[in-house]
Each structure stands twice: as structure tokens, then as C-alpha cells.
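Entry 0007
Protein: DNA repair protein Rad1
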Amino acid sequence: MADAEPIFAAVSSNAHHLYTLLQCIGFAPKATVQITPDGIRFSAEGGRVIQGLAFLDKALFTTYTFNPPSAPNIRNEDSADNDNSTDTTYYPHFVISLSALLETLKIFGINDTATSSSSKPSIVQPSHPPSSNAFTTPALLLDRTCTLQYSQPGSPLSITLSEAGVKTTCELTTYEPDEDEADIPLQRDAIIMKIIMRSAWLHNAISELDSTNPTVLRISASAKQEPYFSLSGAGGPFSESVVEFSVDQQNQANGSQAQPHHKVLADDGTSRARAKRATQAPTVTETFLVSPPSSMGSHIRQDYRFPLIRKASRAMAAASKVSIRGDKQGVLSLQFMIDFEESNGPNAARSTGGSMAGNVAFVDFRFVPLLDENEAADEE
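Output (C-alpha cells):
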């Protein structure tokens, strides 16, 4: 029994990558972990109105071994059909202390250089960070390895950090997740807004609004009327502040006359018009697709608690791009693409996503909208 292989074991040669991703969702003290054949999924939530999802792809690890256990104790009424029960696979699902995990990962001196101790987002320059050298913190972490191991259901999650022959092992107690725990639903088939832009632009806009201490963030988007895309903060001690992303009118006038029509070939052989970038699109956006339902008119307007949006500031600062999506229910998704400078081992090269898989990771934040104007004041 002692020689049984663990359910999960993975080794990373760069603990800084793991720390950067998990720190993005470090707003909550605990996180729900699910181990899958493709990677590890960390989920943190607060009051069922905000959720942060970080996925550590197997390409981030030099070695990744997963031996899925059989589903636990599902033999009550289904014992008659044993043929089906033997085929069920079970992905371990448990809760750990996220704050303890972050403290463990920086036990050898990983510094949180992305953000200071202050919770307020700071303005960042929309450019790539300077390349690391022998004296920067990420470069100093390259000789460190981090080993994660989960032996069996109910066992602790073991983290072993080694550097220059010194090993430190920490075992984090795992807990059973709540029965009614569920992700904040994003209706992917009912997306009415999708905007892709540099994450630095969004981070700077939120930082500007945060200086007025607002309680509510309003997102406004339209493909036909101004303002085409704007963020406004209200409810604070100061008057309402607005950040509006402008349209390049010169390029607009030159390009309006020659808009090619693109079509997509469907599976049944028919063709349909492909959704294309709106004619009036803010200059800073790469993708700007807005299709409000008739009940909203020509503008999409939705309110969210500003303190919750602020919790995504670490991800805004670390990411290179952000995809802003909203569905008909008003659920907001901020999906951040974090681009690491170098690959992390052979798994990155053989990943299905190509050579970029080991360099890119995603962190997704979801927010429940404010349905009542008094809701923000009641929760403060």
C-alpha cells in the first residue's frame, strides 16, 4: 500500500509561473482544486458574486502524471450494472487554503513584484515588460523546482520546493467542497458583447476610476452610437467619472467605403455572414462585437460592484490581453491571457496547442451584475 502510485504528481522548474497565476485569484483565503488529465483547475469565489478561475495547464510542468481513481462509493443502487460503474472516471475535487499555498510558493523569496502591498491598482505602461536578466527575481528562480503531489482521496496536497540541495515540504490539508458549490454561469450561446484589447488599457482605465473611490462600475458599449465603449464609476464621495475609449475618425472615414463581406461555410454546406468587427470600433480594441437585444436598445449598459472589479487588478497587471464578455443575464467575464517569456520544459513543445501552450496561461474572472441601484449601497 505504501508503494502505491500517487493519484497526481507534477514537477515545475519555474515556481514563479505558478505563483503568478495563483496570485491573480488570491483575493479569497480558500480555493477549490480539481485535478484533470489536462491540468489543475483552481477556483476562488466570494459571496457567490465573484469567481476567479486559474488553470495550470500540464504544459507548465516538466513532468505531469495523473492516475485517476475510481469514483468513490457509487455502489448503492447501481451495483447491478457493474459494467458501467467500472468505466466511470473520477477527477479529485477538494478545497485547500489558497493563502497558505501562496506563502509556501514564495518561501524561498519569490517577491510579488506585479503589485505592491496596496490593494489599489496602479497605472501601468501598455508595453512589454523588460526582459529578465541574471539579477531579476524570475531569473533567480530558474534553478528552483516545485513538486506537487496528491496521493489518495482525503490526503494532503504536498508541495516540495528545492533549491541548491535544500528541500522544503509543506502538506496542505484538503477539505470536502460544499455540496451546492457551482460556477457562476456564463451563457456562451447568449454572448451579447465581446471585446478584446490590451490588458494594460483596461488596467489604466480602472486605475483612473479608482482614484474617485466609486462603488459602482458601469460598462457601456454600442456598435452604432457614441459612446461606443466607456467605463464609468459612480456612488463614491466624488462626482461620476468616465473613461471613454475613442474612435479613430480618420481611419473610420477612409475604411468605411471598402468593407469586405466574409462568409462562413456551415457543416450542412450552407453559408452565412460572419460576425465582423463593428464599423464604429474603439481604436484600442482588437475585437469589438456588440449585439444588444431589442429590450436594451442600441446600447449595452450593465452595473457591477467596483470593489469586486478591483479584485482582478493583479490579473490586469500581469496579463497581455483581456477578453471582455457579457451575456444576456448580465454576467461579466474578464478572461486574461498571461504570456510567459520562455517555455517551461518539454511538455510545452508537445502540447496540442503548439509551442505557445507552455508560454500562455489564462485566468478568468466572472462577476454577477447589480440588478438594483440600491444593491451597491446595501452591500457596502
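Curator remark: The chain has two domains: 8-75+85-172, 188-253+276-379. Residues 199-210 form the longest helix (12 residues).
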